Model the fold of this input.
Amino acid sequence: MPQAPDIFIEYAGWMKARIVLTAAELDIFTLLDGKPRTAEELARFLKADARAVARILDCLVIFELLQKLSGCYALTGNGAFFSSRHPESVLPMLLHMNNMWDNWSLLTETVQEGKNPGLKSVIDAKDEAVTKAFIGAMHVIGKSMSQDIAAAYDASRCKRLLDIGGGSGTYTIAFLEKNPNMSGVIFDLPDVISLAAERLKAEGYLERVKLAAGDFYKDELPKGCDLALLSAIIHQNSPQENLSLYRKIYQALEPGGAVLIRDHVMDESRTRPPAGALFAINMLVHTIGGDTYTFREVKETLEQAGFQDMKLLRSGERMDCLVEGRKPR
Done:
């Protein structure tokens, strides 16, 4: 006979998440990087309540992100990844998740009304910290996946990549590394383009990439490219917004060029991949019309824009599905 679940244990994960996000927001992991401190010392530095800080730190010990020795707290190997000083820091992703918290808190109202009544942008041109957290989070996610995607797609015939909403250039760098004869164009918002310039310069790719500032909802796209990449873009759009974007891409691409879409691609039941079903809720609370889409839905919208020969090139569980469409010669 099925046993009733232990509700507290099974569904209280949000408590752990909230504790870790608060620690990230206070930058506790960076403050303890290389310098163990007592709760009282850390509280004085943070200008916070010592008892409350101690309770947070003790939980971080339980989560194996900190260790406690003789009253001092220090990072564990796992906790070190949450410090801004770690070369593979995941702190930007935590800060982005923290920015997402308010929208998720309004899920019930969103379900009742069909849209989030208190929608808060997680990429805000007016808030540099929010923008940096978002772009940094996308880089954390994309560092390894971009290598997989670039390796999985044969772009040897392509001369110039147009990375639409390319962020700090994570995927452009991966494609250029895999294809030495390729050049690139990154098209994104002005504040994001400045972040891309920094990363491209640091990685040694700035001379192979043109940076174009603009808003793909309002502006036309740069022309002269034979491969257009939409990496984790279509889920933030409504079907009509995607159709408008596909039409812009069609006009910008060279004849015979291809559009490559990386995103969750759902099966017809809309329950697989499981991460895609959860991400549909993420889009429900964070966008006006965003969603995750099936291959049939993506194919039909691309066809309306004029593309042909649509293929689902890759399926995956980590938003690593690939759909290709071609512009006729």
About this structure: The CA atoms of residues 201 and 207 lie 8 Å apart.
